[in-house]
Write a structure and sequence with these properties.
Layout lengths: L3 E5 L6 H13 L3 E6 L4 E8 L8 E9 L2 E2 L10 E4 L4 H5 L5 H10 L4 E4 L3 H4 L3 H4 L3 E2 L6 H6 L3 E2 L4 E4 L2 E4 L5 H12 L1
Parallel strand pairs: 1-2, 1-6, 2-5, 6-7, 7-11, 8-9
Antiparallel strand pairs: 3-4, 10-11
InterPro entries: C56_PfpI-like (IPR006286), Class_I_gatase-like (IPR029062), DJ-1/PfpI (IPR002818)
Protein name: DJ-1/PfpI family protein
Pfam families: DJ-1_PfpI
Amino acid sequence: MSKKILIVTGDAVEALEVFYPYYRCLEEGFEVTIASPSVKKLQTVSHDFIEGMETYVEKPAYGIDSHAAFADIDPSEYDGLIIPGGRAPEYIRLDESMPGFLRHFFEANKPVGAICHAAQVLAIVPDLMEGREFTAYTACRPDVTGCGATYIEKPLHTQGNLVSGHAWPDLPGFMREFIQLLK
Protein backbone atom coordinates (compact mmCIF):
# COMPACT_ATOMS: atom_id res chain seq x y z
CA MET A 1 0.00 0.00 0.00
CA SER A 2 1.29 3.44 -0.96
CA LYS A 3 2.33 5.93 1.72
CA LYS A 4 0.17 9.05 2.00
CA ILE A 5 1.86 12.41 2.53
CA LEU A 6 0.21 15.62 3.64
CA ILE A 7 1.77 18.95 2.64
CA VAL A 8 0.27 21.92 4.51
CA THR A 9 0.79 25.34 2.99
CA GLY A 10 -0.84 28.41 1.48
CA ASP A 11 -0.23 31.42 -0.71
CA ALA A 12 3.34 32.78 -0.67
CA VAL A 13 4.86 29.36 -0.05
CA GLU A 14 8.45 29.26 -1.29
CA ALA A 15 8.13 27.60 -4.72
CA LEU A 16 11.05 25.19 -4.44
CA GLU A 17 9.99 24.13 -0.94
CA VAL A 18 6.59 22.95 -2.15
CA PHE A 19 7.36 21.72 -5.68
CA TYR A 20 10.50 19.73 -4.81
CA PRO A 21 8.90 17.71 -1.97
CA TYR A 22 5.67 17.27 -3.95
CA TYR A 23 7.35 15.85 -7.04
CA ARG A 24 9.94 13.89 -5.05
CA CYS A 25 7.17 12.14 -3.10
CA LEU A 26 5.25 11.42 -6.31
CA GLU A 27 8.45 9.98 -7.77
CA GLU A 28 8.60 7.58 -4.79
CA GLY A 29 5.06 6.42 -5.59
CA PHE A 30 3.49 8.16 -2.57
CA GLU A 31 0.02 9.69 -2.65
CA VAL A 32 0.40 13.40 -1.91
CA THR A 33 -2.24 15.89 -0.79
CA ILE A 34 -1.46 19.59 -0.78
CA ALA A 35 -3.79 21.18 1.77
CA SER A 36 -4.35 24.88 2.35
CA PRO A 37 -6.91 27.04 4.16
CA SER A 38 -9.23 26.68 1.14
CA VAL A 39 -9.01 24.72 -2.11
CA LYS A 40 -7.54 27.04 -4.72
CA LYS A 41 -4.62 27.73 -7.01
CA LEU A 42 -1.88 28.85 -4.64
CA GLN A 43 0.52 31.59 -5.68
CA THR A 44 4.07 30.54 -4.83
CA VAL A 45 7.02 32.88 -4.42
CA SER A 46 10.72 32.69 -5.10
CA HIS A 47 13.08 33.79 -2.35
CA ASP A 48 16.57 34.61 -3.50
CA PHE A 49 19.56 36.62 -2.41
CA ILE A 50 20.96 39.68 -4.15
CA GLU A 51 24.49 40.84 -3.52
CA GLY A 52 24.58 43.73 -1.09
CA MET A 53 21.19 42.97 0.51
CA GLU A 54 21.08 41.69 4.07
CA THR A 55 17.98 39.56 3.52
CA TYR A 56 16.25 37.76 0.68
CA VAL A 57 14.00 39.25 -1.98
CA GLU A 58 10.64 37.79 -2.90
CA LYS A 59 9.31 37.47 -6.43
CA PRO A 60 6.11 35.85 -7.72
CA ALA A 61 6.67 32.32 -8.97
CA TYR A 62 4.46 29.50 -10.24
CA GLY A 63 0.91 28.55 -9.32
CA ILE A 64 0.16 25.17 -7.79
CA ASP A 65 -3.25 23.71 -7.00
CA SER A 66 -4.17 22.74 -3.49
CA HIS A 67 -6.17 19.51 -3.31
CA ALA A 68 -8.01 19.95 -0.02
CA ALA A 69 -8.99 22.52 2.59
CA PHE A 70 -7.54 22.13 6.08
CA ALA A 71 -11.06 21.67 7.49
CA ASP A 72 -11.56 18.57 5.31
CA ILE A 73 -8.32 16.80 6.33
CA ASP A 74 -8.19 13.86 8.73
CA PRO A 75 -4.50 13.63 9.67
CA SER A 76 -4.89 10.00 10.77
CA GLU A 77 -5.18 9.08 7.08
CA TYR A 78 -1.59 10.23 6.41
CA ASP A 79 1.81 8.65 7.04
CA GLY A 80 3.90 11.83 6.93
CA LEU A 81 3.64 15.61 7.08
CA ILE A 82 5.68 18.24 5.22
CA ILE A 83 5.56 21.94 6.09
CA PRO A 84 7.24 24.13 3.45
CA GLY A 85 8.50 27.62 4.22
CA GLY A 86 8.11 30.96 2.56
CA ARG A 87 5.57 33.34 4.03
CA ALA A 88 2.71 30.81 4.15
CA PRO A 89 3.67 29.58 7.66
CA GLU A 90 3.07 33.01 9.19
CA TYR A 91 -0.66 32.74 8.47
CA ILE A 92 -1.43 29.01 8.20
CA ARG A 93 -0.27 28.67 11.83
CA LEU A 94 -3.35 30.72 12.74
CA ASP A 95 -5.75 28.12 11.28
CA GLU A 96 -7.66 26.27 13.99
CA SER A 97 -6.82 22.90 12.36
CA MET A 98 -3.05 23.32 12.60
CA PRO A 99 -2.46 22.43 16.28
CA GLY A 100 -4.46 19.21 15.81
CA PHE A 101 -2.46 18.27 12.72
CA LEU A 102 0.82 18.77 14.56
CA ARG A 103 -0.36 16.92 17.67
CA HIS A 104 -1.43 13.94 15.59
CA PHE A 105 1.87 13.57 13.73
CA PHE A 106 4.09 14.12 16.76
CA GLU A 107 2.05 11.99 19.17
CA ALA A 108 1.84 9.16 16.60
CA ASN A 109 5.59 9.54 15.92
CA LYS A 110 4.99 9.90 12.17
CA PRO A 111 7.63 11.68 10.04
CA VAL A 112 7.40 15.47 9.99
CA GLY A 113 9.49 17.56 7.59
CA ALA A 114 9.78 21.27 8.41
CA ILE A 115 11.93 23.55 6.28
CA CYS A 116 12.83 27.22 6.47
CA HIS A 117 10.00 29.30 7.99
CA ALA A 118 8.03 26.15 8.95
CA ALA A 119 9.43 26.76 12.44
CA GLN A 120 6.70 29.41 12.77
CA VAL A 121 4.13 26.61 12.53
CA LEU A 122 5.93 24.24 14.91
CA ALA A 123 6.15 27.04 17.49
CA ILE A 124 2.36 26.99 18.02
CA VAL A 125 2.66 23.72 19.98
CA PRO A 126 5.37 24.57 22.52
CA ASP A 127 4.46 21.61 24.73
CA LEU A 128 5.44 19.29 21.84
CA MET A 129 8.54 21.27 20.84
CA GLU A 130 10.03 21.86 24.28
CA GLY A 131 13.32 19.98 24.59
CA ARG A 132 13.49 19.19 20.87
CA GLU A 133 16.28 20.20 18.52
CA PHE A 134 15.68 21.58 15.04
CA THR A 135 16.99 23.99 12.49
CA ALA A 136 15.22 26.64 10.43
CA TYR A 137 15.98 29.75 8.45
CA THR A 138 18.20 31.95 10.63
CA ALA A 139 15.52 34.62 11.10
CA CYS A 140 13.31 31.94 12.69
CA ARG A 141 15.74 31.23 15.53
CA PRO A 142 13.50 33.20 17.97
CA ASP A 143 10.54 30.96 17.01
CA VAL A 144 12.60 27.83 17.71
CA THR A 145 13.99 28.99 21.04
CA GLY A 146 10.73 30.68 22.02
CA CYS A 147 8.90 27.35 22.01
CA GLY A 148 11.54 25.77 24.23
CA ALA A 149 13.51 23.98 21.53
CA THR A 150 17.22 24.20 20.77
CA TYR A 151 18.19 25.91 17.52
CA ILE A 152 20.71 23.78 15.61
CA GLU A 153 23.17 25.80 13.53
CA LYS A 154 23.38 23.29 10.69
CA PRO A 155 21.55 23.33 7.37
CA LEU A 156 19.91 19.96 8.08
CA HIS A 157 18.99 18.19 11.32
CA THR A 158 17.02 15.05 12.17
CA GLN A 159 15.88 14.24 15.68
CA GLY A 160 13.38 11.44 16.17
CA ASN A 161 10.51 11.90 13.74
CA LEU A 162 11.39 15.52 12.87
CA VAL A 163 13.52 16.40 9.85
CA SER A 164 14.32 20.10 9.66
CA GLY A 165 16.12 22.13 7.05
CA HIS A 166 17.50 25.64 6.86
CA ALA A 167 16.25 26.61 3.39
CA TRP A 168 15.63 25.45 -0.19
CA PRO A 169 19.29 24.70 -1.01
CA ASP A 170 19.04 21.91 1.61
CA LEU A 171 16.11 20.13 -0.08
CA PRO A 172 18.07 17.10 -1.41
CA GLY A 173 19.25 16.08 2.07
CA PHE A 174 15.95 17.12 3.64
CA MET A 175 13.92 14.87 1.34
CA ARG A 176 16.42 12.00 1.61
CA GLU A 177 16.07 12.05 5.41
CA PHE A 178 12.26 12.42 5.29
CA ILE A 179 11.85 9.52 2.86
CA GLN A 180 14.21 7.37 4.93
CA LEU A 181 11.97 7.93 7.98
CA LEU A 182 8.95 6.81 5.97
CA LYS A 183 10.57 3.52 4.98
